[in-house]
Amino acid sequence: MAPQVGSPRPALRYPRSFLGLLVIGLLLVALPLAAALLYSAWSTQHLAEQSRSAVYNAAQAARASRTLVNRIASLERLSLQMAVVPDADLLDDFVQLHDGFQQITAELGRLPLDARQLAALDRTVARERLLHELMTGSVGTRPDVAQVRSRVVELAESAHEVLAISARVADQEVERLRASAEHVQTQLLSLVMVAIAVALIAALALTRAVAGPMAQLDAAIRQLGGPDFSQPVRVGGPQDLRDLGKRLDWLRQRLAELEAQKNRFLRHLSHELKTPLASLREGAELLNDQVAGPLAPPQRAVVGIMRDNSIKLQQLIEDLLDYQRALHAASSLDVSTVRLDALVREVADAHRLSALSKAQRIELDLAPVVVDADVEKLRSIVDNLLGNAVKFTPACGTITVRAEERDGGAAIEVIDSGPGVPEVERDSVFESFFRGRAKAGGRVEGSGLGLAIAREYVEAHGGRIALQSQGPGGHFCVTIPRRPQAAVLGEPQ
Question: Are 47 and 184 in contact (CB under 8 A)?
Fold first, then answer.
């Protein structure tokens, strides 16, 4: 049993509307990218805060170091003065400088210092404490000058270490910022790659979710454009697309009903016309054979006219039915690989007997050409063009048939030495039932459907049929692509 057109995929659960499916898909695609963008904004803000903190710490370290060096210089100067001239006022100034020194060292201690910097700061604090104890240990007495100078020299050496602290703090902050920036950059690159991968996966999933119902709709429309309406239309996906599939299935049923009504009408028309026509032809044949008695010459002429016209009427009815079948068959193609030169030669051989009866010559100029086409429709095109040429070419005339590659496709030309098509009839020659005006040699009989059928089949292949203006006789040119376009294989045009 053939699979149903557009059978749904039950594994996928769709939202109720196609718009909802698109919105969900777009959110899934945009979510990882938005997350990456938000994280990059947060990381940039965090890095900016770190930068501000680093600048603040470096500035604090530089200010505190300079202040501490100034305090050490003042302590050195007061200590040497007190060693020479003990004075209570100098001692009060020394105590105030000591208190300021303690505050500044406490500020430096709160900065992000490493172990080496903390050790240098601790040594400076310890040496200042020893100097303080020496200067305040014996109130009212003069301290030992040599001991004071020794403590002052040690504290001065610490001043250089304190100055180095600010430079090292700035270097540390710069290094910390650099490491943080590299870390953030690595994280952002990783996050962007992951976000892009997730967005691509979501986009592929959305494409699959959308492409499934779209492919089912495409298959359903292709089916409605073809001659077979037996398979039901089923479309999955969101509810609105499933509803659309139901409407397409309703349309399929209506088309199937109309097709059945048309075929039934044609069958009835054929039967209703052929039955009395058969009786009319039989009666004409009996009269012509003089079964009912001998006929006078005028009576035989009337019977001959009746007989000939009944045959023409039957042929017209059959041509009409053939044309309806041709229009129906033109809606679909059964494509296969065709050797065009071999097909033209085969059709020409079938017409040689008719051409010989009129002493006509059929000349073939065929290049090897291979196309993908419906072989029966292509055969009908060549057959109608050759039959038309044989009809309109006078006795002892010439019919030339050419086949060649042209513009990536194939071209067939049928040229005859007949009277050609008058200018006023060129626009109507491919219309149904058009047979043209009487020629000098008498009216050429026919239904006027051959070129119309040929045009339908050529256009079904995505090609073009045209009547060329050069030359005295008829010159028809058919061009078809090497392979029919997608639009003519059942898609709406």
Answer: yes
